[in-house]
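We now fix the convention by which a protein and its fold are recorded. The integers have meaning only within a learned vocabulary of local backbone shapes. The record below shows the convention in full.
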Amino acid sequence: MANTVMAFVSHSDDEVIGCGATLIKYKKEGKNIVVIIFSYGEKSHPHLKEEVVSEARQKETEEVDKILNRETIFLGFEEGKIKQEAKERNIKEQIRVLVKRYNPEKIFTHSSSDPHPDHKAVNEVVINILKAIKYKGSIYAFEVWNILNENTPAIYIDISETFNLKKRMLKKFKSQKFSIYPLWLPIWYRAKSYGKKCGCKYAEKFYKIQ
């Protein structure tokens, strides 16, 4: 499928936090959006049964899919064991098949300097596999819980016209309000400060990996 932008993420809200407004912008330009989610995030509420949390997060993801008119694929990895399961499962072949099927011109994934262990695991797994299968398109890393900047070239995408829709999408993840709400101020601050760097109201920042 030509004219596709793909994102590989740990959990269902990560791509909205890290590159949601940019994905909306690409969709408005007529591109297909495909999001590959490693885990259902079933351990995000320890007091609830994992299947209940998984079902809730899938329904929230479906609501976001409707807003963005995108395709989402869950890989079903156990939360907290992504790196371990990647060694046990033939994930290289799965990703190779997905990349071949959709032929994305751009791929977004987590930053290697994100302190969240699942985010770091997805970055390592995805980047290593894309190099191994000799993916020729562009690869960008986004921020979620980052504190430090990466020592790689950064680009800024003007999201002034899509930032409000990003906020609307984030509100769909009601089960994650206690983890997303603390990020509201950093999300706004980053968008505002990155916008100043490229002369617009809001922007998202990405590290150019390839």
